[in-house]
């Protein structure tokens, strides 16, 4: 191919309803959008893909931009820092209304500087998307823009998928001498945020690129759209879950259960929560009934090797040990997402109660993320590691 005819930019200008291809010669070839694309309305004004860098720049209708790394990539090239939602809110406040941020301002300024310099990777999760979806108006637009800009397309694979793969690898490992590990937890794979995702790459480079371009635009549009979302059924399920665990904790306290009995109760609760995942893993590994019973009997040793699942079990045991613990519906998300992140990220900045519990669990779980108590402590630890 003539070098002057090599594409150097692929763009969709939604505002003017046209697609553009810029060639190395500087020539721009444009054609009108047709069909459903022509009718599309949303918050994205244009997208520009740079084949050389492998990055997509999304420009919103009000002028702000967000750059997505598209991948594929085996792993992030910088330390992974997972932030609980409240810290994303503080970063957005720093960006859009800095006069309103007083507590920990210096730490957040340093953290944002590291993210903008690409010294760290700040992945998004479906918990972040869900919490952002509960907002609307200017507050949602500003929060979503900050998250999209600083995450650059990196995601944490859905914790339900991670725990299933931990269980599957452990159970399938009974059938092979080769150690099995879950897929990379932090990824650029399309749709990795969600439980249903099983993206394994498309059949050709062109199809794979199309899937990645589509995903980046879709998640940006979903995060930024001005429509509050709140799933009443999901909220009710979380509340029932919290009530059930509160009742277990109260019952253990009233019966003066020993520490060992409380840990056994936590293990039983975890196995009950994971019942469908366990059955699926056993079926996939084609275990006979005796091998399955043997695994269940010795599952404590197996779970002890699982970075995410073991942390969920430890936090559950700690909280069940306190009959006064105020179980909340948000605990379901915190325990699973922050435990997953703590098992596989380099650093996790969580909310206060889960920070305490994750740090308390460190001597009982596989090595994982460092859990600082504040933004300044986080940045100090990152900078020390990078020296």
In short:
The chain is α+β, with helices and mostly antiparallel strands and 387 residues long.
Describe the protein in words.
The protein has 387 residues and is an alpha+beta fold. The protein has two domains: 1-71, no CATH class; 73-387, no CATH class. 52% of the residues lie in helices and 12% in strands. The chain has 16 helices and ten strands. The chain has helices at residues 35-39, 85-96, 105-116, 126-133, 137-151, 159-172, 205-224, 232-254, 259-273, 275-285, 289-297, 299-303, 307-320, 330-344, 352-361, 375-386, and strands spanning 7-13, 18-23, 28-32, 44-50, 55-60, 65-69, 81-83, 155-156, 186-187, 347-349. Strands 3-2-1-4-5-6 form a six-stranded antiparallel β-sheet. Strands 7-10 form a two-stranded parallel sheet. The protein has a two-stranded antiparallel sheet with strand order 8-9. Strand 5 (55-60) and strand 6 (65-69) form a beta hairpin. Helix 2 crosses helix 3 (105-116). The protein starts with 6 loop residues before the first strand and ends with a helix.
What order do the strands of the largest sheet run in, or round the barrel if closed? 3-2-1-4-5-6
Low-pLDDT stretches are none
Main sheet, how many strands, which sense, barrel? 6 strands, antiparallel
- Give me the number of helical elements: 16
State the distance separating the first and last CA atoms. Answer: 45 Å
What share of residues are in beta strands? 5-15%
Q: Per the principal axes of the C-alpha atoms, what is the gross shape?
A: globular
Structural class: alpha+beta
What is the assembly state of the chains in this entry?
A: single chain
Order of helical and strand elements: EEEHEEEEHHHHEHEHHHHHHHHEHH
Rg to the nearest angstrom?
23 Å
The strand count comes to 10
Helix fraction by DSSP (H/I, runs of at least 4): 40-55%
In round numbers, the mean pLDDT is 88
Indicate how many domains the architecture comprises. 2
